[in-house]
Amino acid sequence: MTIRIPYPEVLETLKKLFLEHGFDAPNAEACAVLFAKASLEGVPSHGLERVTVFLDMVKNGLVNPKAKPTLSDQFGSFERWSGNLGPGPLNAQFCMDRAISLSKEFGIGLVAVRQTNHWMRAGNYGWQAADLGVIGICWTNTKPNMPAWGGSEPKLGNNPLVVGIPRKEGHIVLDMAMSQFSYGKMKQYLRDGRQMPYEGGFDSRGKLTKEPKEVISNELALPIGLWKGAGFSLVLDMLAALLSVGNAVHQIGETGSEYGLSQVFLCLDPGKLGFADSIDSVLGNIVNDFLSSETFTGNVIRYPGQNIPEIRAKNLAEGVPVEQGVWQGILDRL
């Protein structure tokens, strides 16, 4: 059963929870905001539903709540950091902030981080950049959870990619994994006892299936665009490992858990790069043409991120939706 909890109550509960698990006050608050914001904006699979998983990683020593990122190398507008196995969401927020700052100084800012952890809702960092008026692009690698095209074992990560583009009439924020469905979304379907609306991966015989349990147990998610998505995943992993001098997917897989990830954050400042005056008109024309598309009966056209402000406003007014069992599991950790 889905219940609704007032957003301030969600924040205070999470902040208290993180304080009790070794976070200092500023980091407990920042982490609470990132988890709560994900559910507030309609992504519970990487928000409140991940809180107890995250705390288990802290308990098991995979996430160090006291660790801070440290600078390893700097070359003009490029920085390389170590996350020191600190909290993934906080490391990602920090690295995007550094990329934003570099872009405002140089026009382009590039930050790579190694030895970090799962950043939870990837879209948070695209919104972070767009809200500050810069284009933000970021991606991460993961443990092996997707096959090479034609393969029968997980060799690739589903390596999420985010693109955030600022616009006065509503930011464009693409948040996507290289798999047709993220594993968090598949677990939602499994918990609800539902099939996925489209084939989301392979069963043990190599047949496409809509059954989330089959895909999750085999870790054989379907790459977006079939062989194209598999290739896209591969090069994102390569770039993350090269730029960060960190782990690649196959090395993460050798650990037995998903930690020690590599991530990249790229920002471009429209003002420094000379297109600030035209960004809204150019994007407005593209969006207007896009939304004018004729559709098959019953279909609705949306650009990436279009419905987030509406979802946010509704949940601020009515409370953050959360499965009763998920919320109780959070309360049980206090």
TrEMBL record:
Bilayer-crossing regions: none
Keyword line: Oxidoreductase
Example of a GO MF term: 3-dehydro-L-gulonate 2-dehydrogenase activity
Pfam family, one: Ldh_2
Gene3D superfamilies hit by this protein: 1.10.1530.10, Hypothetical oxidoreductase yiak, domain 2
EC numbers for this chain: 1.1.1.130
Classification via InterPro entries: Mal/L-sulf/L-lact_DH-like_ah, Mal/L-sulf/L-lact_DH-like_NADP, Mal/L-sulfo/L-lacto_DH-like_sf, Malate/L-lactate_DH-like
The protein, known as: 3-dehydro-L-gulonate 2-dehydrogenase
Organism: Mariniradius sediminis
Name of the coding gene: yiaK
